[in-house]
């Protein structure tokens, strides 16, 4: 009876080895399979493995595409320019991929990039299998997968999306991969991208323009110009937003009209700030189509609100002779100004106008919460755009407060920020949370921690692992869900700590 694997079984066996990493105890298997195929393997274990894998993939590809030209299947990939991470990384990443934990994978890639290392080659099949739609990771992948990944992606149709991202034009890219290609080249700030974007399908163009409206790029104005007269009102709206956020003539003339409008409607009286905005306010003089700009947005009290949010608070309040903190205080306390306060929060998140308003708003919010408008306004856009330094300052302000709203405020902030929290502040947050867990938790605090913990497990410095272990307390049975979330938090901090020990000398 012949127990030797057939072609499909051999490929399955090779893939299983890839999932488990470089298992040198299987050297005898590699030698046996190579003899069956009449191959002479040479080089390192990894190189021998990839020689065998490339041959098997080429055989399968030739069977399904007999007339297609195939590269020499024996030729090994080009020599990598950077060193490869150790094999110990493989099981950590495979575990993350099995749970689709993309945040963890992003952290792996960022650390590898900072260490100037390539990902371990045994991880390439799994990453090529699962990361086609993860456009937010593609830029990091190009810096960490190495030349082996492009060599390998040419040998299996399901992996060809990866090498397609390197094509100079969109013409030869598969239809289902064109949006990925456009977003990747946009992230790389490739020039003359506008002509390629117009070739996308309508839905892909909408998704691309939505992305471009949120991120600064030197190509934004040229891309937007291609869509200002589009048949789709949604495309016209996004193109106009992009133009108003760039250094375009439209922005200059619109800002002049906006500042005149603000002088007429936002005034400082003895009773505080007055916002005299109504449907009767004159706005015909604006050099943009407010109807287009308002398309697809939630209906606002006044169509100019969408324009105001595209400029900075300094530009909106340029005519007032008040300090920033005074204006912020008025906006937070006066219920009549709630809508204006929300607009200014969104203004402060504007990446196109460097401003200190974001830090000032958050500092006062921490101090005044839950007074006035502080519980009604969404900080989502602002928290997503604050800098690393501002994140640390906000955490210091929060830790220095001494009221019963710590967990509530921490939850609102941590749910929106994207930066890591430095180690000393991370340790203080862990200590404070576990101290509060020794007290009698309210239902509100328990519910808030259920929201905060999944964010904290990725944003705290993994160096808090020892603090988590030393401060650990068991949760009352009445808070079973919170107890489960805390165990997940503990495990993730441990995994991230192990990751650092593997990657950072």
Task: Explain how this protein is built.
With 505 residues, the chain is mainly alpha-helical. Helix content is 58%, strand content 2%. The chain has helices at 7-20, 27-36, 45-64, 89-98, 102-115, 124-130, 135-144, 147-153, 160-164, 178-187, 194-197, 202-212, 220-225, 233-244, 249-265, 290-293, 305-308, 313-316, 324-333, 338-348, 357-368, 380-385, 388-400, 406-414, 423-437, 443-459, 465-471, 480-503, and strands at 266-269, 272-275. It has a two-stranded antiparallel sheet with strand order 1-2. Helix 2 runs parallel beside helix 3 and helix 5 packs parallel to helix 28 (480-503). The longest helix is centred in the last third of the chain and has 24 residues, at 480-503. It is flat and about 90 Å long. The model is unreliable at 1-6 and 62-74 (pLDDT under 50).
Average of pLDDT: 85
| Number of helices, counting only DSSP H or I runs of 4 residues or more | 28
Largest sheet: 2 strands, antiparallel
Envelope shape? flat
The proportion of residues in beta strands is under 5%
**Could you give the distance between the termini?**
51 Å
Broad structural category: mainly alpha
Regions with little confidence, pLDDT below 50 for 5+ residues: 1-6, 62-74
Number of strands: 2
Helicity range of the residues?
A: 55-70%
Question: Main sheet: which strands, in order across?
Answer: 1-2
- The helix/strand series, from N terminus to C terminus, equals HHHHHHHHHHHHHHHEEHHHHHHHHHHHHH
Report the radius of gyration as a whole number of Å: 28 Å
């Amino acid at each position: 009876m012949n127990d030797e694997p057939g072609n499909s079984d051999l490929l399955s066996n090779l893939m299983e080895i890839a999932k488990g990493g470089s298992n040198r105890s299987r050297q005898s298997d590699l030698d046996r399979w190579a003899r069956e195929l009449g191959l002479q393997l040479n080089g390192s274990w990894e190189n021998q493995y990839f020689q065998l894998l490339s041959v098997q993939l080429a055989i399968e590809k030739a069977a399904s595409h007999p007339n297609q030209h195939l590269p020499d299947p024996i030729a090994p990939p080009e020599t990598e320019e950077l060193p490869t991470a150790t094999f110990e990384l493989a099981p950590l990443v495979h575990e993350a991929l099995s749970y689709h934990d993309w945040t963890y994978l992003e952290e792996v890639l960022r650390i590898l990039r900072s260490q100037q290392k390539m990902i371990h080659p045994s991880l390439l099949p799994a990453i090529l299998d699962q990361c086609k739609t993860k456009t937010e990771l593609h830029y990091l992948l190009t810096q960490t997968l190495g030349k082996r990944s492009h060599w390998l992606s040419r040998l299996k149709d399901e992996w060809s999306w990866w090498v397609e991202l390197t094509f100079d034009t969109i013409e030869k890219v598969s239809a289902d991969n064109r949006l990925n290609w456009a977003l990747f080249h946009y992230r790389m700030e490739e020039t003359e991208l506008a002509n390629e974007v117009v070739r996308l399908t309508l839905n892909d163009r909408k998704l691309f323009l939505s992305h471009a409206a949120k991120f600064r790029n030197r190509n934004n104005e040229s891309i937007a110009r291609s869509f200002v007269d589009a048949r789709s009102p949604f495309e016209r709206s996004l193109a106009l937003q992009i133009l108003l956020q760039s250094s375009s003539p439209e922005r200059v003339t619109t800002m002049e009209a906006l500042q005149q409008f603000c002088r007429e409607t936002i005034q400082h009286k003895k009773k505080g700030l007055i916002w005299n905005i109504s449907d009767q306010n004159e706005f015909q003089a604006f050099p943009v189509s407010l109807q287009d700009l308002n398309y697809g947005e939630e209906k606002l009290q006044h169509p100019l609100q969408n324009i105001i949010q595209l400029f900075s608070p300094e530009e909106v309040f340029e005519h007032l002779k008040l300090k920033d903190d005074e204006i912020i205080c008025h906006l937070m306390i006066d219920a009549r100004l709630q809508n204006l306060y929300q607009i200014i929060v969104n203004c402060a998140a504007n990446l196109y106008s460097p401003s200190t308003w974001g830090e000032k708003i958050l500092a006062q919010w921490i101090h005044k919460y839950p007074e006035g408008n502080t519980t009604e306004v969404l900080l989502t856009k602002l928290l997503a755009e604050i800098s690393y330094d501002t994140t640390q300052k906000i955490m210091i302000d929060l830790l220095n407060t001494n009221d019963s709203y710590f967990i509530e405020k921490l939850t609102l902030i941590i749910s929106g920020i994207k930066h890591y929290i430095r180690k000393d502040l991370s340790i203080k947050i862990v200590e404070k949370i576990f101290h509060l867990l020794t007290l009698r938790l309210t239902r509100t605090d328990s519910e808030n921690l259920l929201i905060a913990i999944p964010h904290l497990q990725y944003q705290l410095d993994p160096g808090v692992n020892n603090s988590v272990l030393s401060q650990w307390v068991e949760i009352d049975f009445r808070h079973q869900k919170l107890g489960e979330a805390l165990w997940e938090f503990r495990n993730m901090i441990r995994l991230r700590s192990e990751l650092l020990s593997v990657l950072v000398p």
